[in-house]
Structure formats: structure tokens, C-alpha cells
Amino acid sequence: MDKNISFKLRYWRQNGPKDKGHFDEREMKDIPGDTSFLEMLDILNEELVSEGKEPFVFDHDCREGICGMCSLYINGTPHGKTERGATTCQLYMRKFKDGDTITVEPWRSAGFPVIKDCMVDRTAFDKIIQAGGYVTARTGQPQDANAILIPKQDADEAMDCASCIGCGACVAACKNGSAMLFVSSKVSQLALLPQGRPEAARRAKAMVAKMDELGFGNCTNTRACEAVCPKCESIANIARLNREFIAAKLND
Amino acid sequence: MWLCNSSIGRKVVMSVTGLALILFLTFHGSMNLVALFSKEGYNMICEFLGANWYAVAATLALAGLAVLHILYAFWLTLQNYRARGKDRYAVTDTPKKVEWASQNMLALGVVIVLGLALHLFNFWYNMMFAELIHQPMMGGIHAADGYGYIAQTFSNPVYVVLYVIWLLALWFHLTHGFWSAIQTLGWNGKVWFNRWHIISVVYSTVLVLMFLVVVAKFALCGAC
Predict the structure, then answer these.
(1) Shortest distance, CA B82 to any CA of chain A (angstroms)
(2) Which of these CATH numbers, 3.40.640.10, 3.10.20.30, 3.30.390.10, 3.30.110.70, describes A4-116?
(3) pLDDT digits (tens, 9 = 90+) for B103-127
């Protein structure tokens, strides 16, 4: 059982994308160390509701690190200083010290306008996927495992790319507001497999065009995205996307 | 045109021009080394690269590359600034693996351009430009006497300090720029990342040392 801690919480309040926004502060008392960060925010909201105040709005869903809905920028790091490969919901209060000040902010990027407080609109990612992040052929029933032979290494690599949950931490961490790690992972998960090859060129061009249209920035290879990705996506994916895109354009 | 209206295309222009400029620096640095052991040899190179048509054409092409690289840098930075949104984070904690140079490429680039302006004033203006306007003695020394201009410039400690700062900024710029250009062109992967990274640091270090050693030699013992 971890000991209880008390700390000052600074959390961002903003009434919609056009509102200026500000920080609210609250002293949180005796929070058990094995409380998850989102449970701590539930405690905050219970206190706010009991005082007749408006609850703090933040995104969350599965709370087991797989859905990609959490999106909090905690003490200067997307998802906070979790164990490598974890999202905000897997961050526990034992990671903080008694007397700390914890600052909670939304993802800040032109591509992700604030809906309210720390909830941001990430439909831009859905639009990028809709632009080409799929295979158009009907796949039908699952085929026999050996019908299309795929080297184990490629299958593993494609699976690693597919593990991107589209949380947007890459965009939040990038000083350029670039979505390249997300887009490259989604292009790679199909480009690495024979089923994805026939449409690889069209897919890379369409998804990059949509990404640019939605106002995401240009990648300058700072590697901040890779450092904070809760699913440990590699910038090798970005190199692969660059390859796919340049080859597609040269073949036009 | 995808080299203008797509993010990867714009980065490709930055990469190709950047790599071409690194290639130029390699030639330039190699020629400078001649000044360490032969005044006649160095001045022969200066004469070869004087106001001849091929040298002027190459200079114009080089200037074009540099201008393209600089214009795209400002263009990309402006777009990236906008993409970041109007609100900035109150608290930021940059991850350890993010190199300082990678976040300050434009600032380093500005220092390099200022250094370049000084360098063109010290050398190109008195050498190629002086020959082009048929005033070979404009700088006080004959336009083809590059060795004399090196000795004259680095006898002034202010220039020595400015050139060292300039070369240091260049080193930082190249340690990120080299592998970043390769990454943008797609010649990278999980295995090659560390290799390109080391190649970048080693190549940039050797390149900058090639320039620094000439500055040091003439600063410490002049034309001896």
C-alpha cells in the first residue's frame, strides 16, 4: 500500500475553442499513492460537484491503456511521466511526491481545438484515416493462415505499427504540431503487408495531403514524438512514410 | 508541384539543398587544408577558382542552393509555428533524447548566415568580386592571393573569435541536419538510425575541424 500524498493541482479551464482559458488551482489532500491519475481527477470532480461547481472536463474511456482517449499534458509531458508504453490512465499518484505542484494542460495544437477544459477535438485523425488508412477490397472470411506467406519479422513490425492508438501525444509533444508519427504508423501497418501493397502509393499521398490540409506542421525530426509515444512507435515509420510518399510522387 | 505544396516535398527540398551544401563544405574544407602546407598551392586553387566562367557559374548555383535552403527554412518554420496553435504550454519538460540542435535549427541557421555574410565580406568580396569588377587590388592584397587574405583576416583576434562561434554553430546545425536529411529522404530505419546518427556527428566534427585547424594555425602563428 503506497502512502498518501497531498499536492497542489493546477488544471486548465476553457469554455470552448475561442475562450482564452485559465488555470484553476486546488489543494488535493491525502490522495492514496495507488490512485490512478484519472481516479484522482474523479475525486477532484466529486469535490467540485459537492461544492456546486462545474466539474473539470477531460477525455477518458477504457482506463486500461488501449483506447487512446486519455489526452492530458501533465507537468510538461503528454500522458505524464508514466512507465514507458503507458497512457495517462496508467499513471499512478505514487509517481508524485508530497507537496508537488501538478500542472494539467490539454494537447495544444492548431489541429486539436479545445472542446472544453482538457478535452480536445481529435476528429482530424479520423479524417486522415478516412482519406486512405484502409484496404478497399472486401476481405471476406479469415483466410487460411498459410494462404499468403508473410515473414514473421514483417508481421511483427506491422503489428507494432498497428498498435498506435491515435491518442495524439505525438502532436502534443511536437514543437511543430506535426502528426507524422501517427500518419506514418497508420501507413506502415498496411504498407508492410502484401494486402496493403496494391494501394500503398495512393494511401501515402492521400493521407499526407489530408494531414497537410488539416493544418498539422512539417516534421523536423526532433524525435519528441517517439520519446513520449505510449505505444513506443519509432520514427523509422516516418522514414518509411517518406519513402512511400517520395516514390509515389516520382512515379506519378 | 509536390515540392511546394506537400509537407514531405518541402522537407525534401530542405534535405537535398542541405546535403548539397554539405558536399560543397567538404570541397571547401579540403581546399583550405592546402593553405596549411603550401602558399603557392593554395594560391593556385584561388586562381583556378577566380573570375573564370565556370567558377562564377558554380558560385551562382551555390548561392541559389543556399537561398532556397534559407527561404524554405523560414517558410517551414512559419507553418510550424502556426500549426502549434495560439496557446503555448505553461510547463514543458523536453525529453532527454531530443537534441538541443534539433529544436534550434533556425536560430543556428541565422548565426550561420551572419557568419557567411562576414566571410563573404572578408574573402569573396576582395577576391572573386574584385576580379569581376577589374579591381584586383581592392582589398589591399592581390585578388588571387587567397593565402594573404587568410593571414590578414586571422591576424585579427576579433575575426578569430567570430569565425570560431560561426563554426561551432555550423557543427551543431550539421549534427542534426545531416541525419535529418537522410531520414527525410527515407533512407533510414531502426538499424540504420544509430549508424546515420554516428556518421553525422563524426562527419560534422571532421568537417568543422578542417576549417578550425586553418583558423587556429593562422591565428597562432600567422603565415609562418
Answers:
(1) 7
(2) 3.10.20.30
(3) 999 999 999 999 999 999 999 999 9
Under CATH, what is the fold of the domain A122-250? Fumarate Reductase Iron-sulfur Protein; Chain B, domain 2 (1.10.1060)
Residue B89 domain-assigned (yes or no):
no
N- to C-terminal Cα separation, chain A: 62
Question: Nearest CB to A109: which of B8, B11, B84?
Answer: B84
For residue B103, the distance in angstroms to the closest alpha carbon of chain A comes to 7
Which residues of chain A lie closer than 8 angstroms to B85, CB-CB?
A: 108-112, 177
Residue A108 has its nearest CB partner, among B10, B85, B184, at B85
pLDDT over 80 at A84, yes or no: no
Residues from chain A that touch B90, judged by Cβ atoms under 8 A, are 10, 23, 103, 105
Of all residues in chain A, what percent carry a pLDDT higher than 70? 100
Tell me, what amino acid is at B31?
M
**Nearest residue, CB atoms, A218 vs list B80, B88, B96:** B80
Helices (H), B38-51: 39-48
Q: What's the number of domains chain B is made of?
A: 1
Q: pLDDT (tens digit, 9 = 90+) per residue, B126-155?
A: 999 998 999 989 888 999 899 999 999 999
A69 to each of A45, A107, A116, A164, B11, how far by Cα in Å?
Answer: 18, 12, 15, 12, 31
pLDDT for the residue numbered B224: 67
Dihedral (C-alpha) B206, B211, B214, B216: value to the nearest 10 degrees? -80
